[in-house]
Write a structure and sequence with these properties.
The protein is α+β, with helices and mostly antiparallel strands. It is built from ten helices and four strands; from the N terminus they run αββαβααβαααααα. A four-stranded mixed beta sheet has the order 3-2-1-4, with helices on both faces. Strand 2, helix 2 and strand 3 form a beta-alpha-beta unit. The longest helix has 24 residues. The radius of gyration is 20 Å and the shape is globular.
Amino acid sequence: MATLAEAALRAEERRALDHFVERLELELGGDLRGVWLYGSRARGEWTGPESDVDLLVITTDGSEEAWLRSALWETVEAERASPFFFSLQVYGLDRLAERRGIQAWFEKEVDRERIVLAGDPEGLAGVRAPAPELLPGEMRRRTEELLEEAHERLEVARLSVGAEIGTPAVSLAYYAAFDAARAALSEEDRHTRSHEGTWQLFRETFVLAGRFDAGLYAATHAGQERRENADYRRVRFTPEEARSIIETCDRFLTAVEAMLARDPDPK
């Protein structure tokens, strides 16, 4: 298991984390169940100049989120670090147990890579709800969540182009398709962290096996570069260009749902 010494942190960020944990232990006492660093910084990776310091704080019931965010902001600013580079998630014990119970990918990744800054050094391993029993043909809950997110992203993308705003819609549409790809892989219990890894795993699992249209896959996968152009390279997209990308991603999502519906247990 990684240690804080191996994390990719600037000196002021390390001080901020130390003081933040001290403050939480003092003010929350027994209600503080854990403070975990996760993500690229916990893995010792610098993924870019704006890579977030990702934190998950677990309290008894998760009701202190507003105060925790304020405390984090104040502590980070006091150490002359940038609070904009700190990302905070707050869970109660029930939420942690439920997310582990459905084997949600985010929580599985956090459990695999976390660095425990406070609380149970074993990461509250016993906090886990029983896995829900699935009826024949029933989707995993994590799969349903990914598909729901995909539809929500597409709807916001449509609203964006409806307001004649193109560039943000490109990113939203891409992530809708990406969520759909992850949903399909979820039903196969397959997952990888990176975007490109996800697309290649989808190709290997569904396209090469003849279960998904190769042309639609290629057209949708091409949206990855457009999303990166929009998010990182300041490339602007017109509403007309964004509408075309939304249409492709919508067809991809529809095809994924159709594939899962007619092939609920491909193994």
